[in-house]
Amino acid sequence: MNKASNFAITKYSLCVSTVFSSVSWFRSYLTVKQLPTLLSMKKFFAGLFLLGCIGTSIKAQISPPGLGDANNAFWGAFGVKRQLDSLGKKQALSYVAIGRKSSPDDHNLFSKQAIIVLNHEVYHSFAPHQQYSYALSYRRQPQYESTAPYDQENTEQEFRIYGRYAYTFDLGRKWKLKSTIRQEFRKFFDADFHKVEEDFQLRTRIKSQLTYNLSPKNNQKLALSAEALFSISHLNEPDSEWSSFGYREMRISAYYMFTIPNSPFTVDIGYMDDLIRDSRSIHHGGVHYLAADLVWNIPYKKNK
């Protein structure tokens, strides 16, 4: 048996093991009432990972953040991506974004201001198929009362740093599977930089994204992804203590991506379903996002 066959068998075994381990783990966190959601998630994960098992650099959209419990939400971003070297191995992406969301009793995704984000991330493709990045982020998020008329109660500020590692599998000419692990440190303040109930949080995010090159014309692509989020928090109130580490939410996304002809701009339009553990919205299929971002791509220019 040749090396290619050995690699293929190993890859199939790893993927099948991952599917069954993931399904079993998530089953322990869901209640009987959430069984239909579990079954649909089983099918989704099995499909996603098995597609990856059938067989680098994937253009990634600016993913929406979690905007809390709601029915619907909107996320829009404008970014500037710069090539930092002549080989295209180093890039920087800076963006500003806003989020809107509905009230708990309506479906108007533009109803309430949800978040403002400033983000700067640097990427380095340091080896074939492998990439790491690091980032700084500032977020300002209004907090609303839990009862009608859902008026704004206060404002929370967040400062975030994170690092990310990604490995990309080439699955033939048109398919790519990118697996990512991201570790975050999140620090929270109120509008006047005073302490809030949650002091800071350590959060781990694990994501798989399958991308299909739809057409070379305008660099059109389709992407399907699933991301699981786990966290542990240090609390200021009611006592200074740590919460338990555990699974918090699942984000499932589908995106269409293309380049505007004769321009340096790329556009990403997508949908995300945010399944928040123990939330009201998870019993209605999660929080449904409409997302769009515009990125200005600036090529590398050698200093004279």
Which descriptors apply to this entry?
single chain; mainly beta; eleven-stranded mixed beta barrel; 14% helix; globular
Please outline what is shown here.
The protein has 304 residues and is mostly beta strands. It has helices spanning 3-27, 35-53, and strands at 72-83, 90-101, 112-127, 130-144, 152-171, 175-190, 198-215, 220-235, 241-242, 246-259, 265-276, 287-298. Helix 1 packs antiparallel against helix 2.
Please write out the topology.
Elements: H1 3-27, H2 35-53, E1 72-83, E2 90-101, E3 112-127, E4 130-144, E5 152-171, E6 175-190, E7 198-215, E8 220-235, E9 241-242, E10 246-259, E11 265-276, E12 287-298
Report on the architecture of this protein.
Helices cover 14% and strands 54% of the residues. The protein has 304 residues and is mainly beta. A hairpin with a 6-residue loop joins strand 1 and strand 2. Helix 1 packs antiparallel against helix 2. The longest helix has 25 residues, at 3-27. It is globular, with a radius of gyration of 20 Å.
